[in-house]
Amino acid sequence: MAMSKRAFWGQLIGKFALLAAVGLIGHLWFVYVDHQIIPVEEGKVYRGGVMSTQTLHEVVRDYELKTIIDLRYEGADTEAERDAVAKIPGVRYVGLPTGQIPNDDVVDAYLTVISNPENLPALVHCYHGTGRAPLFGAIYRIEMNGESPEHARRNAKAFFFGSSFSKQGEKGRYLRAYERRTPAPTE
Prior knowledge:
Blueprint: H1 5-33, E1 38-41, E2 45-48, H2 53-63, E3 67-70, H3 76-86, E4 92-95, H4 104-114, E5 122-125, H5 132-145, H6 149-154, H7 170-177
Parallel strand pairs: 2-5, 3-4, 3-5
Antiparallel strand pairs: 1-2
Helix pairs in contact: 4-5
């Protein structure tokens, strides 16, 4: 028995709705529960999103972090995080507020922090962990690991047509034009 057009479209729409719901739940888990803690280079630099004070303490312990680099603009949340980090022995808070595309001073300050082995391992985070943190992770890979800007862009995060990391996207264009500021790493 042939399926009616109405039934076909109803099933198709239902399947897309289910996929969208699963994707949304996965995204919410990744951002708000897992906090997107992703290694940029295992044991050296991680990237992620903002988290509660208790979770921050756990992440510092689990990853043996020495530095928290916060890319958010100053406000009550950043002050609370700075105060919480100040209570963790041996851990440094570095505020580097930036928009979606950093200016040269912010990038230079970031490179100063991550090029000092005494500051590593470090966690660099923005609010959600999906924009600025992956961008700074890509900058790390270009500067410290010698990756090409295009390779670092492709590995910044999963992207799709129209995302900010696509070739035409704001962050994609920034990374593709990025020029290394530090000497090439030696083996």
